[in-house]
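Form 12-C: Joint structure prediction
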Amino acid sequence: MKFNENLAGLVNYEAGKPIELVVREFGIEAKDVIKLASNENPFGTSPHVVEAIKSAASNAFLYPDDSYFELKEALGAKFGVGTKNIIIGSGSDQIIEFCLHAKANPQSAVLMAGVTFAMYEIYAKQVGAKIYRTRSQEHDLAEFLEIYEAHKDEISVIFLCLPNNPLGECLDTKEVYEFLKRIDEDVLVVLDCAYNEFAKFKDARKGIESSEILKFKNVIYLGTFSKAYGLGGMRVGYGIAKESIISELCKLRAPFNITTLSLKAAIEALKDEEFVTKTLENNLKQMARYEAFAREADIEFIPSYTNFITFKFDKQSASEISQNMLKKGIILRDLKSYKLNAFRITIGQSWQNDRVFEELKQNLK
Amino acid sequence: MKFNENLAGLVNYEAGKPIELVVREFGIEAKDVIKLASNENPFGTSPHVVEAIKSAASNAFLYPDDSYFELKEALGAKFGVGTKNIIIGSGSDQIIEFCLHAKANPQSAVLMAGVTFAMYEIYAKQVGAKIYRTRSQEHDLAEFLEIYEAHKDEISVIFLCLPNNPLGECLDTKEVYEFLKRIDEDVLVVLDCAYNEFAKFKDARKGIESSEILKFKNVIYLGTFSKAYGLGGMRVGYGIAKESIISELCKLRAPFNITTLSLKAAIEALKDEEFVTKTLENNLKQMARYEAFAREADIEFIPSYTNFITFKFDKQSASEISQNMLKKGIILRDLKSYKLNAFRITIGQSWQNDRVFEELKQNLK
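Section 2 - Result
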């Protein structure tokens, strides 16, 4: 059977390894596995949210209120925007998909950083769009502008990952706003702010404000409940933009794109800012330990504005170290699929990080 | 901002009205609302599954095992197929999307019944494909073949909805297999079996067997946990086909397309066949009451092989009746968006149906 041409060039996203796999492959008990591979919240889910999910569990048979009325009202209040400026996705990933399916096509191109979130390219290829990347791995807006100017007739979508997954760096907000002014209003600029809570907490100059975003006719802010809000497994993300953008993206949203329990969980998660603050505080404190560890062990790292840190290797193989750690029940994220000799470690709780340091030491030469 | 051309022709799917809306608009308490609009399971979710969800609630922060290993093993055992013959979707809806994004394009056409599940057309339009429908509202394979033969060079996907939503009729399996033999191996035939458990229970001649499906190189079977398995709100569906089809569709599946709790719920739901049997038995028994009611009230209906029945009207307005019922807290599904003067009623529990009959009587002239 012949399939659409675009499929020929597609490869699947390589997800972080699940705990179940370590249990299956290495016979380690689930409770002894430390998963720091997928940037989930090391404190789990807020206990209030867990209770809310339990209370709503018997509604699993009911489709959700597809207007997502209550969630949009709550997000609208938090960000100071109207409900018509909000779209809900199955993770912010799905809104990335909507953006590309709405604006990119085989005649257009998509611009992104040299090394950035893999799903941008995957979705862009699904619609047959061309990809431009900056030479630098990290975001460099001068390079973005240079490529943009050279291929203005082609580029229909630009991605800025603020902060950048999987590297960790983050552009200054002021720079970003200046950049946005240079971009034609017909080009959609996606500000992927999945980790922006962490960046803003570390340094206010990295925080993207939705009120500023709504000044632009061609910019969308993406946020998620997967990281700081502790709901990675529930798949809820959101986009904030002018109504003229949101209403078009909504045409691509299938009904019931999040689950009934995800909807409930997200609404409850927004009420527990204390949990988020605890998460952000732990992250900052434990991040300092990783930096100190790396300096002492002479490992190259990128100062991170996220809830993970990426260690780069020169002589040793990062894949080999990751694999050794895996056998000990510690799951890190090998970045081989990003063509890097590096791995990414989610910042865990103190006791988890202790074990990481201990095992890592055994593996460093 | 200009968007891709395909978006111009798109309208959103009109979902069944949620309980929350009736509460908001008519001030009726949620506990007094009877929702028979979206073909959810009137017994809710199996108590065993509800318990499993509660036990897993604290895992909401963890991404699911993206291989869906355990669920695929369980489905494979149930259907007697390999795990590589299975793809998991966010509802079977999402697999409809994958099929169309993989096989349809602006140069191709999609063939379906005169009145059938709205998402086929919506997803087909997303990729700019042309739509052919049979003249008859219900499935008529002679008409399908006639159109297929006349537009063989264009048609890349054919949908058969077995049984058909929102009408309720169901083709005989034997007829379907004969039809499949007449279709070129490069055309993907999608057998949407979301309600097939109900059809098979009523009449064995309507049951589609996955072992038969795997004999064809170009056929995919779609099943769901939303109806007989009582998990509409959890969004889990599956496709079964030759590995050559599944592996291509998997290229379009984003990681973590179902939630951690949905995965758990689906695995547990497969273990409780008793709940499914109870559901099917109630459905058959209560369906007979709806048929008797319709005959007595002289309402036209299509004998249904699903968990709903569609009442067609001639003189009275189905929309008006639906709206009156809504004010009384009973949510039916007006089929105006399908261009029918009809409404669809999910077969409820006995006490729910009593109330429907009572209120309907007040509205019939």
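Section 3 - Comments
Residues 98 and 253 of chain A are 7 Å apart (CA to CA). The first strand of chain A starts at residue 34 and ends at 35.
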